[in-house]
């Protein structure tokens, strides 16, 4: 007998459908807004100029002529696409140079380049872990980490964001699970912008014989003297077994990497399905990432890291002085989150800022805990003070009008 259930039924009455419809109707949807020019500190978006406080182009290198030339030279030499996997016909010399330079930057034996950062996480966790193993993850970890953990079918033991007492408990439980144990955390958490307490996490992993993987997507190109990320900043590079990074933030391109020992990286090369069964990134993406990495590793790198972090501190201070509730951490990062709490208020505030010429990202549940809606603002090294002051002026005006109509925002 044919099935009576249509698998598409769920697309009709899902939980978010009503919200999505209402937001679209009121033109309040903060997602899929149309960019009409380069991803700079000020962008053209839907017919107006807006200050970009919602980008991961932390060093502003997508507009750097050397990075553009890196992309163009790769395009001219190799054409528009590689039309095959790294494993087969998709590896070019630029991949090999990039992998060698990434490993030198991270101070590891080797590195492997994936087509996206998401695939780097899925293709590593889903390959190294198996049903007999245990993986312990912070609840604030990026979705791609969770996807990799689920794919692996390892026993997943999550712990509340930043609660290392809970991590310790999970490690104790994992001792009894009987398989290998991996702890995986973001070095810088992508929504809250806080830095993981890696020295303590290393200590706990050591005590329990667990391996440690750190996702440096938001730390690489920003933190530490070499810009190698949170592991470098906190002096634990040698104690972290695997470091993941992306090209889609400071490195001004698209792609991802894993850095670690020769034996692990070589294993991934011949077993990771997200590496082997997908096309290699287009040559222009690889050429751009390589050119950006060379800038990051040059004398210019630390100046750029300094500039973006000064901008973040300036924005954070300015927003706090205006009475916004800004999440603060011991370490400044490029991410300056403003707590709003209620989802609908966050969307209304986003729209008011958008109309006032400032673009920010809105993070709603499940990207953040329930009732933890926030505006995720982030800065670039290429924002100047006048632009940040203009943005702060818009925040001040929007807050005044918003609170008059909707009541006080969290302070
Ligand atoms: C912490 C973290 N890890 C991994 C990724 C995935 O990287 P990509 O977007 O380059 O695929 C992201 C991107 O949003 C991220 O923020």
Describe this structure as you would to a colleague:
With 411 residues, the chain is α/β, with parallel strands linked by helices. It is built from 14 helices and twelve strands. The chain has a seven-stranded mixed sheet with strand order 3-9-8-7-6-4-5, with helices on both faces. Helix 2 packs antiparallel against helix 11, helix 6 (164-175) runs parallel beside helix 7 (198-208) and helix 12 runs parallel beside helix 14 (385-406). The radius of gyration is 22 Å and the shape is globular. It starts with 16 loop residues before the first helix and ends in a 5-residue tail after the last helix. Bound molecules: pyridoxal-5'-phosphate. Pyridoxal-5'-phosphate binds next to helix 4.
Name the features:
411 residues, binds pyridoxal-5'-phosphate, 42% helix, single chain, alpha/beta, 14 helices, 7-stranded mixed β-sheet
Topology overview:
Blueprint: H1 17-25, E1 42-45, E2 48-53, H2 65-78, H3 93-106, E3 110-114, H4 117-128, E4 134-138, H5 143-152, E5 155-159, H6 164-175, E6 181-186, H7 198-208, E7 211-215, H8 230-233, E8 242-246, E9 256-260, H9 262-271, H10 273-276, H11 283-297, H12 300-321, E10 335-341, H13 343-355, E11 358-363, E12 373-378, H14 385-406
Parallel strand pairs: 2-11, 4-5, 4-6, 6-7, 7-8
Antiparallel strand pairs: 1-2, 3-9, 8-9, 10-12, 11-12
Helix pairs in contact: 2-11, 3-11, 4-5, 6-7, 12-14, 13-14
Bound molecules: pyridoxal-5'-phosphate.
């Amino acid at each position: 007998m044919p099935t009576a259930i249509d698998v598409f039924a769920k697309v009709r009455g899902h939980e978010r459908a009503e919200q999505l419809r209402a937001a679209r109707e009121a033109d309040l949807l903060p997602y899929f807004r149309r960019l009409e020019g380069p991803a700079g500190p000020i962008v053209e978006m839907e017919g107006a100029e807006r200050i970009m406080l919602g980008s991961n182009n932390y060093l502003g290198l997508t507009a750097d002529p050397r990075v553009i030339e890196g992309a163009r030279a790769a395009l001219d030499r190799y054409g528009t696409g590689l039309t095959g996997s790294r494993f087969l016909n998709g590896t070019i010399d630029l991949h090999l140079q990039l992998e060698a330079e990434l490993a030198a930057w991270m101070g590891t034996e080797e590195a492997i380049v994936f087509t996206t950062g998401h695939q780097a996480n899925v293709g590593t966790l889903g390959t190294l872990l198996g049903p007999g193993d245990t993986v312990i993850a912070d609840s604030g970890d990026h979705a791609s980490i969770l996807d990799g953990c689920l794919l692996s079918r390892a026993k997943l033991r999550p712990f509340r964001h930043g609660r290392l007492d809970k991590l310790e408990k999970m490690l104790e439980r994992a001792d009894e699970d009987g398989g290998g144990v991996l702890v995986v955390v973001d070095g810088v958490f992508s929504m809250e912008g806080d830095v993981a307490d890696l020295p303590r996490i290393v200590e706990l992993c050591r005590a329990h014989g667990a391996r440690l993987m750190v996702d440096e997507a938001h730390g690489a190109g920003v933190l530490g003297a070499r810009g190698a990320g949170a592991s470098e900043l906190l002096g634990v590079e040698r104690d972290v077994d695997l470091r993941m990074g992306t090209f889609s933030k400071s490195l001004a391109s698209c792609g991802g990497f894993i850095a670690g020992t020769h034996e692990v990286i070589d294993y991934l090369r011949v077993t990771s399905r997200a590496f082997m069964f997908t096309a290699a990134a287009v040559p222009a993406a690889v050429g751009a990432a390589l050119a950006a990495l060379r800038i990051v590793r040059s004398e210019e790198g630390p100046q750029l890291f300094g500039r973006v972090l000064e901008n973040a501190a300036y924005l954070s201070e300015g927003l706090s002085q205006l009475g916004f509730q800004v999440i603060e951490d011991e370490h400044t990062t490029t991410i300056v989150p403003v707590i709003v709490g209620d989802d609908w208020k966050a969307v209304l505030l986003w729209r008011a800022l958008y109309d006032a010429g400032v673009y920010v990202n809105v993070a709603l549940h499940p990207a953040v805990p329930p009732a933890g809606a926030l505006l995720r603002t982030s800065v670039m090294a290429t924002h100047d003070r006048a632009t940040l002051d203009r943005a702060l002026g818009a925040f001040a005006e929007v807050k005044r009008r918003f609170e008059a109509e909707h009541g006080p925002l969290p302070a």
